[in-house]
Amino acid sequence: MKNIYLLLIIFHMVSCNNQPKQNEISEAKIELETENQIANNNETSILTDEDSYQPGLDWKLSWSDEFETETIDKNNWNFQVVEAGRFNDEWQRYTDSNENAYIEDNCLVIKAIHEGDVHGIDQYTSARLHTANKQSWKYGKIAARMKLPQGAGIWPAFWMLGTNIDENGGDTSWPQSGEIDILELYGSKDDAVIEANAHYADASGSHGMMGAASFKLEQGTFADEFHIFELEWDATRIAWLVDGEQFASMPITAVELSEFRKEFFILLNVAVGGKYAGRPDSTSTFPQYMYVDWVRVYKEG
Predict the structure, then answer these.
(1) pTM score, two decimals?
(2) Are strands 288-300 and 179-184 parallel, antiparallel or unpaired?
(3) If 110 and its partner were Cys, which of 38, 157, 214, 290 is the partner (CB 3.0–4.6 Å)?
(4) Taking a C-beta distance cutoff of 8 angstroms, is the pair 298, 143 a contact?
(5) Domain limits at 24?
């Protein structure tokens, strides 16, 4: 009888020792839930809202980059490597690293990174992509579907320069080359506002411009969801639109506006800081991302 009791006691002790403790169960459960959450976050697509864009019956697709390849198409895009401070006293340096520009979920992503613990010149990296010497256009509808970065000191842009500009192998300096700003967002001003502009050389050869024209969202910011940014351009005028709504236009028939009757190429970039954009501060968060679903060029007719 004593042997039976002894066996039962030993069996009970072994069984208890083989059971996981309650805190071990909780820790395992938390770890599993965390892993599942990370997996779910990684599977979340950048493109969370529907693309219903229609260019209009008069516009026929001439060129596009839908960013459906694994890497950025070098037949379309150049990485412009630029040291910090070269343009507009900006604080970032532009790199050719796939840390700063890459394809994810069929989107081009431009990522601005803060590398240090302080704010200042050369403390950030970003990317500046352009189509110079690869793709260029004279007239048409130039459009992109984008979600923009935000915050103090953040300055994303979707814009165009004349193909003859000297910084890309041409023989003409700025502003004689011409510049068309399809959108610029100044995070130090308002993340719900983008601005359009055009720059040229006036009759005296000095810098002239249309003057900034702004578009403000009725609610939210341009970092909340994707929007369509368009430029309609012919021999007589340039017009700017957001989500199909025109908010600015400029006649270009004057003699001193001849820059805008020549070929241009496209640029996409995210600057940090600069004399026009303000500076990042303690409220600025990094990294910041600009997402480009597609870029398209349409011809009329």
Answers:
(1) 0.85
(2) unpaired
(3) 290
(4) yes
(5) 2-40
pLDDT at 46: 81
Query: Total structural domains in the chain?
Result: 2
Q: Does the pLDDT at position 5 exceed 50?
A: no
| 147 within 8 A of 279, measured Cβ to Cβ | no
Strand ranges for 66-192 from DSSP E: 78-79, 92-94, 101-104, 107-114, 124-126, 128-130, 140-147, 154-162, 179-184
pLDDT for the residue 2: 41
Active site residues: 179, 184
Could you tell me which of 201, 195, 137, 203 has the C-alpha nearest to residue 174?
A: 201
The reply to whether 175 and 142 lie within a common domain is: yes
The string of DSSP codes covering 47-92 is --S-------TTEEEEEEE---SSS--TTT-EE--B-TTTTTTBSE
Comparing CA positions, the residue from 250, 221, 248 lying closest to residue 235 is 250
The SS3 call for residue 41 is helix
Indicate if 232 and 267 belong to the same structural domain: yes
Residues 266 and 120: beta-carbon distance below 8 Å: no
What digits encode the pLDDT tens for the residues 8-65? 333 344 333 444 444 443 344 334 443 444 334 444 678 777 898 999 999 999 999 9
Q: Using CA atoms, how far apart are residues 111 and 100, in angstroms rounded to an integer?
A: 5
Q: Which helix (H) or strand (E) holds 198?
A: strand 193-201
